[in-house]
């Protein structure tokens, strides 16, 4: 596969751009795939690495709606989801018995997004942890801080929002 072109988040638009991406996205827990798609969207916003939204059909593990919500000036009110991660997983079936550690509010979606973001209605986005997230086979790093949910890959160049001293960007 040829190297990917560098992506500089300082050149991403504001308001953010929503577009389909053919990239292969996976989320894994103990090497078990819990989400897998090549039919996702990404949101590109100034100073942020891409945030990926996966179709509900790509989620292989059960999610439970959380009471937590937040508000995005561009996309609207976010709904958060909990997932129970088994202590030891050997197959996706291990996620369905309800035993393990409940991870709260690390997955979100927009049930009623603003007009410009209607295509991601009910699509879900994962923070890059505590599970492993992959873009085209590359293990991603989480966007710095614990507020934003962007996925940092090797093609991201320059500083991104989220770390110390970047709050006002």
- Order of strands, main sheet, comes to 3-2-10-11
Radius of gyration: 16 Å
| Helix percent band | under 10%
What's the total helix number? Answer: 0
How would the global form be characterised?
globular
Largest sheet, strands/sense/barrel: 4 strands, antiparallel
Mean pLDDT: 94
What is the ordering of alpha helices and beta strands?
EEEEEEEEEEEEE
- Overall strand count: 13
- Class inferred from helices and paired strands: mainly beta
Our estimate of the beta-strand percent is 35-45%
* First-to-last CA distance: 35 Å
What does this structure look like?
With 169 residues, this protein is an all-beta fold. It is built from no helices and 13 strands. It has strands spanning 17-21, 25-29, 32-37, 40-44, 51-53, 64-72, 76-85, 101-109, 124-126, 132-135, 138-139, 141-142, 151-152. The strands form four sheets. A four-stranded antiparallel beta sheet has the order 3-2-10-11, with no helix packed on it. A hairpin with a 6-residue loop joins strand 4 (40-44) and strand 5 (51-53). The protein is globular. The N and C termini lie far apart (35 Å).
Which labels suit this protein?
mainly beta; 13 strands; 38% strand; 169 residues; four-stranded antiparallel beta sheet; single chain
Brief write-up:
With 169 residues, the protein is mainly beta.
Furnish the topology, listing elements before pairings:
Blueprint: E1 17-21, E2 25-29, E3 32-37, E4 40-44, E5 51-53, E6 64-72, E7 76-85, E8 101-109, E9 124-126, E10 132-135, E11 138-139, E12 141-142, E13 151-152
Antiparallel strand pairs: 1-4, 2-3, 2-10, 4-5, 6-7, 7-8, 8-9, 10-11, 12-13
